[in-house]
Prior knowledge:
By secondary structure, this protein is of the alpha/beta class. It is 38% helix and 16% strand. The chain is built from 20 helices and 20 strands. It starts with 15 loop residues before the first helix and ends in a 6-residue tail after the last helix. 3'-phosphate-adenosine-5'-phosphate sulfate binds at residues 401-402, 406, 429-430, 433, 442, 447, 450-451, 472-475, 511, 513, 522, 524-526, 530.
Amino acid sequence: MSLPNLAPIPELYVSYDSAQKLKHEAGDLPSWDLSPRQICDLELLMNGGFHPLKGFLTEADYDCVVDTMRTASGALWPIPVTLDVSAKFAEGVEPGQDIALRDQEGVILAILSVTDKWVPDKVREAERVFGANDLAHPGVNYLHHVAGPVYLGGPVTGIQPPVHYDFRGRRDTPNELRAYFRKLGWRKVVAFQTRNPLHRAHQELTFRAAREAQANLLIHPVVGMTKPGDVDHFTRVRCYEAVLDKYPSATTTMSLLNLAMRMAGPREAVWHGLIRRNHGCTHFIVGRDHAGPGKNSRGKDFYGHYEAQELFKKHEAEIGIEMVDFKHMVYVQEKAQYFPANEVPDGGTVLDISGTELRRRLREGLDIPDWFSFPEVVAELRRTSPPRSKQGFTVFFTGLSGSGKSTIANALMVKLMEMGGRPVTLLDGDVVRKHLSSELGFSKEHRDINIRRIGYVASEITKNGGIAICAPIAPYTATRRAVREMVEAFGAFIEVHVATSVEECERRDRKGLYKLAREGKIKEFTGISDPYEVPENPELRVETENAEVDNCAHQVILKLEQMGLIRA
Ligand code: PPS
């Protein structure tokens, strides 16, 4: 089994001339704008990475794949590769029709000759493919919350591959890798699949795996879509490039795979094996928890630790690639060396740093020892994950008009500027309404648009390492939560409820607006004739009655310090 067939694998592309003709004719066809995941799937369909599939699964193929891990014709295929679309688009498409598949800029990549259109049973798909209909599984969550409700199936005619502007020289089709192996006379190749940065333990294990199999090594990281929350692929590829220098260049290479992972554990391992076979590899490393999605909603693992290896082994011959089982490598202090966990010398002190611990150390700017990783990798990770005290964040004040939000926000801004180190922007309610939202009024709909705009700007500031201080009324819980989500993708969000009572605000009535609201001259006035939903769990609640502004701002500073966002 282990000698590869390095003859070219069938692709779905047509010739250049036919592609030009198809592009021209496609103007009249219904067009589907592919999602990022569909672009990944289409690329691997077209370049032979998903051989023997010739298009998006038909209904019969889908049913068989979901139930039996095989297409209707009996080929082993564990993961449904389907074209999910919106109900509205599906209404205008019938089997027998061609549709143009376009990327997000509108460039046509392929034609799908639709043979099937159906509404899938997603609960069944979740249970069969992922093992549970549990939204804690990222694949299940995608299925229910991102994927469209209708599937289209049929053969694909490839016009051109999706365009990539990043790391172009590192991306190879199955045929390019096959040709490379052929040219170098590499008859045995072990592939290593990864979605994480490589540290010393990975280098040791891949190196050992290749040595044991007497094979060359292909580091084959996924750069399409991985588990939400993973280190972004730009950072990872820079890390991989640094680690590649540590391998013997005559026997090791790296190539990037534009796969959209599903995190389907055992089924996914089989899928990964088929894809690597298609890329000309003879061996594949499968580890503990291969493509594992983490814990389910009851805090338990979705799959057994070695379930992926067991399923792979069962189908090894049919996949056509030999499994090399991943030995968990640990560092033994006395020997200053890595050992497989089951071969640690008696009395040896085992050192290990978990993924969670690594993230904590990065977040807090703590030491990451040389035995664990390479200095170049750590430096790269620190560049993208600076400690909290150097990351951007948003302080979001909410409260009634006249509650003191702007005054405290201004005091906070000055204090933070005095400390220095990060740029500070104040997005005050009145100022935003002048510069960003001048056309908006105070209906629920307009207030929501206003707050989402503030959230978007704050999230961009946070992403770029600055401090955003927002001070709108923001009366609705759901909208505040949406802003929190936008910001938390990039940094901390600190909600501060300025809890001045409506009676006190009205008594102060700094702008005379409460009087006008009582007289009915201002409609929909928050706290008088419009709702204010009090935040239930803000990071901080400040009382302003009988308190100095300076003290209120200082309470926020103390909170920021406690969260590790600023250093005293
Ligand atoms: S919202 O709900 O968050 O979009 O409101 P916001 O943009 O923060 O409102 C800013 C200022 O608008 C003045 N104003 C009103 N507030 C509430 N309700 C009505 N109908 C209204 N009309 C005008 C008010 O002075 C708000 O200023 P602040 O800074 O909160 O005192």
